[in-house]
């Protein structure tokens, strides 16, 4: 079961059965057509942050910030720990295999938390990898156009 929080005020629980019975068709990369209760809904994923499990989703021209919590996230939260609380991240690794589409930073550049670092294309989706903390870029281990494996080192902080 997944817990979904929309705009930090609306909470939903979604089961795997709910996902499997969803009548959705991908019409373009990150764009979907959904039928629900005989109503047509256009959905576009406009931004993703895998580190914080946050997505910006445009539904019929309204944009919503959506947080998705899986079973592990729910257990961590139940133990009283904040999800993503560790800010001492020194290495950014690929969350999944993919293609580096764009690198937005340079070695020596100072970045703030949530600044975009790079774009990783995976499963036909562009995923923006944002900085988990403030810091200075020590090294960039990949180049634009390069294919990376899951857990490959992408960027190091000083």
TrEMBL record:
Which CDD domains does the entry link to?
biotinyl_domain
Say if the entry is tagged with keyword Transport.
Answer: no
Q: Note whether Nucleotidyltransferase occurs among the keywords.
A: no
Q: Name the InterPro entries on file.
A: Biotin_BS (IPR001882), Biotin_Carboxyl_Carrier/Decarb (IPR050709), Biotin_lipoyl (IPR000089), Single_hybrid_motif (IPR011053)
Tree of life domain: Bacteria
Name the UniProt key words of this record, in alphabetical order: Biotin
Cross-referenced PROSITE patterns, in alphabetical order?
BIOTIN, BIOTINYL_LIPOYL
Q: Taking every annotated instance into account, which residue ranges of this chain make up the domain Lipoyl-binding?
A: 80-158
Q: Protein name, please?
A: Biotin carboxyl carrier protein
